[in-house]
Specification:
By secondary structure, the chain is α/β, with parallel strands linked by helices. The strands form six sheets. It has a seven-stranded mixed sheet with strand order 3-2-4-5-7-6-12, sandwiched between helices. Helix 3 (57-69) packs parallel to helix 5. The protein starts with a strand and ends with a strand.
């Protein structure tokens, strides 16, 4: 073995390194902040690890289960709402168990930095009877993942590995070691274990309860669970990133630090609680640990003084536990930065047209959700991946076609392939007549430009068949499929009017790549003050590169402008002109 060395790593990078060192052979994921970078770091080890972007999280978990059944160590990565999509296989593989070690990495988002809810993965995993490991820093992120694979194989259990935004994107010191890949376990046909028909599932339920009880007993002595005894006046049970806040805010307190948060080490907790005067339970989001501790009859203080919302901090703990009134300095004044589409985003021209036509849109998860805010204000609903199409369908069935003539569904290309396909299929099958707009920008934009099944590239960097989205829509029975350049606003307006007037399902695909994908020289536009009539037409789409001078004329910030030309198309007075052409 070569000598180990210490480096600074992001939490997500450390998780990827842990998977490599643990001998993972297959990793399947769907990008979702804050989990995305795990796969992007892991693919650096592609000579040893097969990595893929799957169409959605359900498929990703099923692929990882297949690799595990074949005898290899396998991993699947996603964000917390992606775990909902993966719930079907996750709940069932909990009954099946594993062959090669199987770990599902789920990244929660306390504080809602990039998510539509703050759900707690520990609650979902408990319902699925899945054990949960949670690290507190980058070093543990690597080492705990390796332990999770060992425990998975030892106890025949798939493991959930919970991380959070703060851990994923914080840096810490990590000690690197060589890859220790165990031999693949031989595949063995086992109908009773691996075929979840009712008779088998009943027997497997008994088995997993037994395995979880064994794991709960082992949790009392696992090294990832530890007690740090200091001043016994205050005792704290905690896990994950909140452990760091506890150590900063209450440095003299005794701490029971948990790495395995489901099942809990009951004996360890009972013994710790007996040694301290006042017991606090510090955990972000839901009172998962607290409720179990209270159920054991152990007095403790938890959510009556700690919030169930958002991230914690050392200052919050000082205030809640010690009663300190902190004199916080006023934050520095910075310019407001409202959520807005990037300059040159092809979604902006689409929303401009829809706004002009006074259309409403059932929205979806992606950059285009920003079409809900001023000045575009088109998107009326956003719920979850793929929901725009199903929402539009349900509204039409409730209110009738005439009521829905000024409604469309908007969905991105990656999201359409994630779960929009089934929803469009449902519209065709159940005689709907709405219009679906697939905003195809040739990438998974919101999470940082990952490839998907229609881009022609895999996560491994290999060329592959690119799904033909128009052909896919036609194959499902959509008779009216139109592809239009997002920036051809006259043609787009014409197409929207025609398709929303139909009494059958139609699809409009606005095909224009995300502006951030371009590496070429950008065109340069300039505003001519002497020609500007101050009408404000060019300001309507809300491009951040467009501002007004003091006299009301328009100015284009050439450091922000990407040269999309939308403003030139909107100006009827020739006050915006192309100064220099680009190569894209």
């Amino acid at each position: 073995m070569s000598e180990s060395k210490k480096v600074i790593m992001l939490g997500n990078e450390a998780i990827a390194r842990g998977a490599y060192e643990a001998g993972v052979k297959v990793s399947a994921a769907y990008p979702g902040t804050p989990s995305t970078e795990i796969s992007e770091y892991l693919v650096q080890y592609k000579d040893d690890v097969y990595c893929e972007w799957s169409p959605n999280e359900k498929v990703a978990v099923e692929a990882a289960v297949g690799a595990s059944l074949a005898g290899a160590r396998a991993m699947s990565c996603m964000k917390h709402v992606g775990f909902n999509v993966a719930a079907d296989p996750a709940y069932s593989v909990s009954y099946m168990g594993v062959n090669g070690g199987l770990v599902i990495v789920v990244a929660d988002d306390p504080g809602l930095y990039s998510s539509q809810n703050e759900q707690d993965t520990r609650m979902v995993a408990r319902a699925a009877k899945l054990p949960v490991v949670e690290p507190s820093d980058s070093s543990e992120a690597k080492e705990f993942l390796k332990m999770a694979f060992e425990l998975s194989e030892q106890f025949d259990r798939p493991f959930v590995y919970r991380t959070t935004t703060r851990l994923a994107h914080s840096q810490g010191i990590v000690e690197l070691h060589d890859r220790q890949a165990p031999e693949d376990k031989p595949y063995e046909k086992n109908i009773r274990k691996n075929v979840m028909m009712p008779g088998n599932a009943k027997l497997r339920h008994v088995e997993i309860e037994k395995r979880n009880a064994e794991l709960a007993e082992a949790a009392n002595t696992l090294p990832m669970n530890r007690v740090e005894m200091k001043d016994t006046r205050i005792g704290v049970i905690t896990s994950g990133i909140p452990y760091q806040y506890v150590k900063e805010a209450l440095p003299e307190a005794s701490v029971c630090k948990l790495g395995l948060v489901n099942p809990l080490p009951k004996k360890m907790i009972e013994e710790f609680a007996a040694k301290v005067d006042t017991l606090y339970i510090v955990e972000e989001l839901d009172p998962v640990i607290e409720e179990q501790v209270r159920a054991w009859g152990i007095p403790c203080i938890g959510k009556e003084i700690f919030t169930v919302q958002g991230e914690y901090s050392a200052n919050m703990l000082r205030q809640a536990v010690l009663g300190e009134k902190l004199e916080l300095q006023a934050p520095a004044e910075v310019p407001g930065r409202p959520p807005i589409l990037c300059p040159g985003c092809p979604h902006r021209s689409v929303y401009y047209v829809l706004n002009k036509l006074k259309m409403h849109a059932a929205g979806d998860i992606g950059c285009y959700t920003l079409g809900a805010v001023a000045p575009l204000g088109v998107v009326d609903t956003t719920m979850c991946m793929g929901s725009s199409i199903s929402t539009l369908h349900g509204m039409e069935k409730a209110k009738g076609r005439e009521y829905m003539k000024n409604w469309v569904a908007v969905i991105g290309d990656s999201t359409f392939l994630h779960t929009g396909v089934n929803s469009l299929m449902n519209m065709v099958y159940n005689h709907a007549s709405g219009t679906v707009m697939i905003l195809d920008n040739s990438t998974t934009g919101m999470t940082g430009h990952q490839d998907h099944a229609a881009t022609g590239k895999t996560l491994m960097g290999e060329d592959t068949y690119a799904i033909d989205i128009p052909g896919l829509c036609r194959a499902m029975g959509v008779l009216n499929v139109t592809v239009v350049n997002a920036f051809d606003i006259d043609e787009l307006e014409k197409v929207v009017k025609e398709e929303t007037a139909r009494d059958q399902v139609s699809v409009i695909i606005t095909k224009s790549p995300c502006v951030l994908l371009s590496k070429g020289k950008k065109p340069l536009y300039a505003a001519l003050e002497e020609k500007c009539k101050k009408c404000g037409m060019c300001m309507k789409p809300g491009c951040p590169a467009m501002t007004r001078n003091e006299d009301g004329t328009i100015r284009i910030d050439d450091t922000m402008c990407t040269g999309c030309g939308l403003c030139e198309k909107l100006c009827k007075f020739g006050a915006i002109e192309l100064v220099k052409d680009g190569d894209r």
